Amino acid sequence: MKTPSWFLKRNFTAYLLLPVSWIYFLISRLVFFSRSFCKKVSKRPVICIGNILAGGVGKTPIVGEIAKRLKSPVIMRGYKGGDEAKMLQKAGISVFVGDRIKNINYLNSIKKAGPIIMDDGFQNPTIKKDISILVFDGKIGIGNGFILPAGPLREPLSAIKRADAIIFVNWGGKPISRKNLNRPVFYAKNKTIMPVGVSRFIAFAGIGYPQKFFENLPKRPVKSISFPDHYQYTDTDLKELFALAEKEKAELITTEKDWVRLPPSAQKKIKIAKLETTIEPAFWEWLKKKLNEERN
After folding, report:
1. How far is CA 149 from the centre of its chain?
2. 95 with 74: CB under 8 angstroms?
3. What would the pLDDT profile of 165-183 be if each residue is shown by its tens digit?
4. Alpha-carbon distance 145 to 150, whole Å?
5. Residues whose CB is less than 8 angstroms from the CB of residue 227 and which lie 6 or more positions away in sequence, other chains included
6. Model confidence, pTM
7. 86 contacts 24 by C-beta, under 8 angstroms
8. Nearest CA to 271 among 208, 204, 218?
9. The dihedral formed by the CA atoms of 26, 27, 30 and 31, expressed in degrees to the nearest 10
10. Which of 190, 250, 260, 241 is nearest to 218 (CA)?
């Protein structure tokens, strides 16, 4: 679905949905605590990269950077077409999709001792995390600050106390106050790279907050078209996009996450505006020290 407009700003709809949010929160807490009594403990350290917002915070590139640096496999549930998994695999990372406990058991059975990266799962109490890292988008922050469905939060901001560290992507210094977080805070930057030779183009995206993609493009598109998050493009969608590109005498570009969901015939005609993610050096020093503490 497309990200609701009230997720970013408190309006009448957000306040109208508040009673539903309270019910959602109570049910989610009951489920969380009922599943907390039997935790899977991995022989290999498990590093959970999670969020407390419903998508769109830039978590997948962070997962990719950490997995590449540590040469670690990634476990994830997968979602719809599995675009995150395909994107990580394209970067040469080993990805195991499906039942995370079964995948942990398998990775524990092979002769390797490095950490396992768990993409998402911060709200999953059935797996013991050795290190939990929360990712926030510096521009979105916590949105309107309400819990689903009145806002984008999966759980209150107080959940930060379960995390070992926080990474702010593209920090702007306003959406979230660092005061009282009482956790190590690190910063990451995303840079969108235009495909070589592209000057006149139409940009489209089906991600959590497509406007972020459009705004971060180094050049202004002729048109920008938004689709729902994890959107599965149909033949009709693609025909319309190609027809529009021909009419405007422009090329089509999209995110890597969208591109991996396209059929091969469309991938040949559509270019990727890749995302380069850089995490500050202090984070890697902290992570190395934290892993050493867990091993001792």
Report:
1. 19
2. yes
3. 999 998 765 556 655 578 8
4. 9
5. 2, 204, 205, 206, 210, 233, 237, 258
6. 0.91
7. no
8. 204
9. -150
10. 190
